[in-house]
TrEMBL record:
Bias kind Pro residues: ranges: 60-70, 863-873
Source lineage: Eukaryota, Metazoa, Chordata, Craniata, Vertebrata
Principal place of residence: cytoplasm
Organism: Anser cygnoides (Swan goose)
Location within or outside the cell: Cytoplasm
SUPFAM superfamilies cross-referenced by the UniProt entry: Anticodon-binding domain of a subclass of class I aminoacyl-tRNA synthetases, GST C-terminal domain-like, Methionyl-tRNA synthetase (MetRS), Zn-domain, Nucleotidylyl transferase, S15/NS1 RNA-binding domain
InterPro entries (UniProt xref): aa-tRNA-synth_I_CS, Anticodon_Met, Glutathione-S-Trfase_C-like, Glutathione-S-Trfase_C_sf, GST_C, MARS_N, Met-tRNA_ligase_1, Met-tRNA_synth
Bias kind Gly residues: ranges: 40-51
Family: Belongs to the class-I aminoacyl-tRNA synthetase family.
Residues of the WHEP-TRS domain: 887-943
Residues in GST C-terminal domain copies: 112-246
Keywords: Aminoacyl-tRNA synthetase, ATP-binding, Cytoplasm, Ligase, Nucleotide-binding, Protein biosynthesis, RNA-binding
Molecular-function annotations in GO: ATP binding; methionine-tRNA ligase activity; RNA binding
UniProt keyword RNA-binding, yes or no: yes
Protein name (database record): Methionine--tRNA ligase, cytoplasmic
């Protein structure tokens, strides 16, 4: 094995120490710093990994110190993409590992030490929690001259967590009595900042002992001596000074947002503690009254009226997990939050159904375009119902309202001189005997040479492309080489509309929340200068162009599709203009992936601005990056990745999928779905953290106090906890108001961690056996804890609605208390009776996950579903009336609640007659739900009764 590391690189410390600890037979290659490589003739700039990094002579391990003397002839870097500051391990098989933690774990695995669940949890914690904080501390320390914990800031909370873990178990090491890879990884992260145990406070005695033991061990000492030599630290400092600040600070800088201090980090003031205690004492009186909107929902004067759309999913295929998190799941989470805030909220979506892609899919499956749309609209709707997406209306674009509204906007643009006519060169496939839509031409991007650019846009550089500009174009349908033919088309005069667009953008950016990538992509369009954009196509399946000379053409899908937001709302209510022609009263949120940004930030706004009919324009454009699958991309054809219709067949509940997708939501950069990480997050964050706390809090009420919330006498420590929870709640609101959905989820998990620590420190299971004072203390701790669980039930509702319903049922939370408040208050007062409590989550086992990884790793592509629609096909030209989403949502929640009640009765060994009665109610509810969803109730089979 060959290990490439950079002397002076902090990430190198842990891998070298792990190699020593595991006695790994590895050959070390010391690379020079990036700046040195860049200085050489022909070298690349720092951080690119290009050029000659001038590797020093390789030596087996040990010795670890780079040999003295002149550099030998350079070895080739392990990867052209590998920065000299990133460790890389080349295995004997030729495979290369780049993750420092993966390299460390590989060394210990090769040495025969299998990882435990606790070891994996520590590795995940180090990667997600500790590393970002240490990076910021190290930057402040080496670049700005701050020392030790003065530079650490948020590090104090994490050190306290390690202290609690070590002292709570009484073990010498993080994962047990034996030094493990977790100890090496955490020590390697901390050592560059702490240097020695003298910077640790006396309160962290267990941590001090552990850190000293690790630092004095031979393996760690040799690693530190070799990696962090004084001259290499100077090189590393010089490198850091040329870099931008750590990612968190950079994200805040690009978003123009003030820095927000973590609620768990800063000291509490006496005023905050007193205010929290006062709010607690007010109880339910401190809560806002739930808002019950009218049906159909319309803007209400004096209220905050929120209109939410998610990019319309195209109807020719099944959405995968990346599609779901990028659009509908993110929008749904925010919509649920808005409703809990009593904001008057309308969330609409639907399938985008016109265009060549639909025609092509219809040919593939032997159906008409209308039949394809009916079929896949039903498939999409079923998937989103399973994921608990709470649309107020889920429609489609193939409706008379779509034609009327799109043609009206077109006529207004034409009358105001914002349309151009021109002859264009267009690609025609002689084999398919048709002009090719942009997305059905692939070739080499003329700007960045990306080889899989589409005919309308390059996914790599993001630039718009005219299909005829592609190098080596190919027909995506038959792989033939298309020819260029002239044809007449209409164009939207974007240069002329730019005069209106730019001031509107400035206003929207000033008053609204646009994600950093949305701003960047839009700026790049404006910077490059807008060009006329063709809005017509030589197709049959689309909205007809109402103009002589062009009546054999249809509108281009990207002109037509965003108008679908308006037409879908028009199918919901004939008063749709109160939402879409009312910018004075309505806030519009658009959710999408980053590839959809230009069409929503430039082309669609230009269409509405040019139409000049007081349209509601987007105030908040929320775009995600991409979600990848494991080490690659989702591919339906290759059977790689989880698609929406497959998720429910995994046996993993919808809420677990929701939680994990939202936990790794690609907000600032691309992220990747990982089966191992899904198991880890479920078992650690949900089962051991959130679920453990809520279950313990409710169980203590049932076990120690007969199911009645006991009296509470708050101490000073209790009041500080109330204030801490209030701060977390406040930050949760601040983050969600900025649509930072992933970060707000951390606040929920942080509150449950506070709760677990509160219970662990106060030990109510012991105090309940003591004297009167101890029993009173047990009652106070139990009462406060179960009220924290009640708060979490509301906070978690946007993320895991079924879990929220289950908690509400178990704790018997009053409906009037199920609303989000800005303060933490006592919603379950003394005397409140809770129900039976049962676990909320189940552990995911490694063999189960490995089977799923294999199943979705390729080759499992499902055959195309039969052409027959599960519901009767409508008459030609008619529109299928969608199911009532509100009824479906209500029945889904009732089924979950009744199912939980049945499980509780069985767990408590209730009388068979009572259980049978409640099961009958459950089956009746399921029957009603099946009918509401358009399914046959006869297919419902009780669990455990299926024949094998």
């Amino acid at each position: 094995m060959r290990l490439q590391v950079a002397a002076g690189g902090p990430a190198a410390l842990k891998v070298v120490a792990a190699a020593q600890c595991a006695a790994a037979p590895v050959r070390l290659c010391w690379s020079a710093p990036a700046g040195e490589a860049a200085a050489g003739e022909g070298g690349a700039t720092h951080g690119t990994g290009g050029g000659d990094p001038r590797h020093r002579e390789a030596a087996p391990c040990p010795p670890l110190r780079p040999p003295d003397g002149p550099a030998r002839p350079a070895e080739q870097p392990l990867s052209p993409l590998c920065s000299p500051w990133v460790p890389a391990l080349q295995l004997d098989s030729g495979a290369v590992l780049f993750s420092p933690n993966a390299i460390c774990q590989y060394f210990f695995l090769a040495g025969g030490q299998e990882p435990t669940d606790l070891t994996n949890q520590w590795l995940e914690w180090e990667a997600t929690e500790l590393q970002p904080v240490v990076a910021a501390a190290l930057y402040a320390q080496l670049v700005h001259g701050k020392k030790g914990l003065e530079a650490a800031g948020a590090l104090g909370k994490l050190l306290a967590y390690i202290e609690q873990s070590l002292s709570g178990r009484g073990t010498a090491y993080l994962a047990g009595d034996t030094k493990s890879v977790a100890d090496v990884v955490v020590w390697g992260a901390l050592f560059p900042v702490l240097q020695d145990e003298a910077s640790l406070s006396n309160e962290l005695q267990a941590l001090r002992t552990w850190f000293q033991s690790m630092t004095l061990s031979e393996a760690c000492r040799k690693a530190a001596d070799s990696v962090l030599m004084p001259e290499r630290l100077l090189e590393f400092k010089s490198y850091l000074q040329k870099q931008p600040p750590p990612c968190l600070a950079m994200e805040r800088a690009t978003s123009n947002e003030p820095e927000e201090e973590e609620a768990s980090e800063r000291a509490l003031t006496e005023e905050e503690i007193t205010a929290a205690a006062d709010a607690w004492a007010r109880g339910a009186a401190a809560l806002p009254k739930p808002w019950h909107p009218q049906k159909p929902m319309l803007p209400v004067e004096g209220m905050r009226n929120v209109l939410i759309t998610s990019a319309l999913p195209y109807v020719n295929n099944v959405p995968h997990l990346g599609n779901i998190i990028g659009c509908v799941l993110s929008a749904d989470t925010f919509a649920r939050y808005c409703r809990l805030r009593n904001w008057n909220t309308l969330y609409v979506c639907g399938t985008d159904e016109y265009g060549t892609a639909t025609e092509t899919k219809a040919v593939e499956e032997g159906l008409t375009p209308r039949e394809i749309c009916d079929k896949y609209n039903a498939i999409h709707a079923d998937i989103y119902r399973w994921f608990h997406i709470s649309f107020d209306y889920f429609g489609r674009t193939t409706t008379p309202h779509q034609t009327a509204i799109a043609q009206d906007i077109f006529q207004r643009l034409l009358a105001r001189g914002f349309l151009l006519q021109d002859t264009v060169e267009q690609l025609q496939c002689e084999g398919c005997q048709r002009f090719l839509a942009d997305r059905f031409v692939e070739g080499i991007c003329p700007f960045c040479s990306y080889e899989e650019a589409r005919g309308d846009q390059c996914d790599k550089c993001g630039k718009l492309i005219n299909a005829v500009e592609l190098k080596k174009p190919q027909c995506k349908l038959c792989r033939g080489v298309p020819v260029v033919k002239p044809t007449q088309h209409l164009f939207l005069d974007l240069p002329k509309l730019e005069e209106q667009l730019e001031p509107w953008l400035e206003r929207s950016w000033t008053t609204g929340d646009w994600t950093a990538n949305a701003r960047y992509i839009t700026r790049s369009w404006i910077r490059d200068g807008l060009k006329p954009r063709c809005i017509t196509r030589d197709l049959k399946w689309g909205t007809p162009v109402p103009l002589d000379g062009f009546r054999d053409k249809v509108f281009y899908v990207w002109f037509d599709a965003p108008i679908g937001y308006l037409s879908i709302t028009a199918n919901y209510t004939d008063q749709w203009e109160r939402w879409w022609k009312n910018p004075q009263q309505v806030e519009l949120y658009n959710f999408m992936a980053k590839d959809n940004v230009p069409f929503h930030s430039v082309i669609f706004p230009c269409s509405l601005l040019g139409a000049d009919d007081n349209y509601t324009l987007v105030n908040h454009l929320i775009a995600t990056e991409y979600l990848n699958y494991e080490d690659g991309k989702f591919s339906k054809s290759r059977g790689v990745g989880v698609f929406g219709d497959m998720a429910k067949d995994t046996g993993i509940p919808a809420d677990i999928w929701r939680f994990y997708l939202l936990y790794l939501r690609p907000e600032g950069q691309d992220s990747a779905f990982s089966w191992s990480d899904l198991m880890l997050k479920n078992n650690s964050e949900l089962l051991n953290n959130l679920g453990n706390f809520i279950n313990r809090a409710g169980m203590f009420v049932c076990k120690f106090f007969g199911g009645i919330v006991p009296d509470m006498v708050l101490t000073a420590d209790d009041k500080r906890l109330l204030a801490r929870v209030t701060l977390e709640l406040r930050q949760y609101h601040q983050l969600l108001e900025k649509v930072r959905i992933r970060d707000a989820l951390r606040c929920i998990l942080s509150i449950s961690r506070h709760g677990n620590q509160y219970i662990q420190v106060n030990e109510p299971w012991k105090r309940i056996k003591g004297n009167v004072e101890d029993r009173q203390r047990a009652g106070t701790v139990t009462g406060v804890a179960v009220n924290m669980a009640s708060l979490l039930a509301v906070m978690v509702q946007p993320y895991m609605p079924s879990v929220s319903v289950a908690i509400q049922g178990q704790l018997c939370i009053p409906p009037e208390c199920f609303v989000l408040s800005p303060v933490f208050t006592c919603t379950l007062p003394p005397g409140h009776r809770v129900g039976a409590v049962s676990p909320l989550f189940q552990k995911l086992e490694n063999d189960q996950i490995e089977a799923l990884r294999k199943r979705f790793g390729g080759g499992q592509a499902k055959p195309t579903p039969p052409a027959s629609d599960p519901v009767p096909a409508p008459a030609s030209g008619s529109v299928v009336a969608p199911a009532d989403p509100q009824l479906i949502q209500e029945l889904t929640e009732q089924v979950a609640k009744q199912g939980n009640h049945v499980r509780q009765l069985k767990a408590n060994k209730a009388e068979k007659a009572q259980v049978d009665s409640e099961v009958a109610k459950l089956l009746e509810l399921k029957k009603q739900l099946a009918l509401a969803e358009g399914k046959s109730p006869e297919i419902l089979v009780p669990k455990g009764k299926r024949k094998k």
